[in-house]
Amino acid sequence: MTKQDVLELLKSPEPEKQREGAFAARDMDMLEAAPLLVELLKSRSLGVQEAADMALRKIGSQESVQALIPLLSDDSAQIRNLSMDILRHIGHQDIDSLVDLLSSEDVDIRIFASDILGSTSSYIAVSPLCNALLNDPEVNVRYQAAVSIGELGRAEASPCLNKAFQDEEWVQYAVVEALSKLRDESSTQALIKALPESSELVTSMIVDALGEMGNVKAVPMLLKKIELSTTALRNKIVKAIIKILGGKALVFLSEKEREKLNDYLLVALDDDEEETQDVAMSGLGHVGGDRASAKILNIVAGLDPDMDPERLARAESALVSIGYTESLSKGIMSDNESKALGAVRALGKIGGPDSIRVLTGAFSHKDRDLQREITKELYNSAGPEARDFFLNILRTHNDGDVLKNSLRFIGYKLRDDECLKELMSFLDHPWDDVKEVALDSVLTIGGDRVAKEFEPMIESSDPTQRLMAVYAFGRLGAGKNISLLKKALTDESAEVRKMTLEAMATVCPDDREVIPSAIRAINDKEREVRLALVELLGKCPHEETIAYLLEILEDEDEWVRIRAIEALGEKKAGDVVPDIISLWENSSKLQKIKIIETLGYIGNQSSFRALLDILDDFDPDIQDAAEKSLDRIQDQGVE
Question: Taking the model in full, what pTM does it have?
Answer without folding.
Answer: 0.68
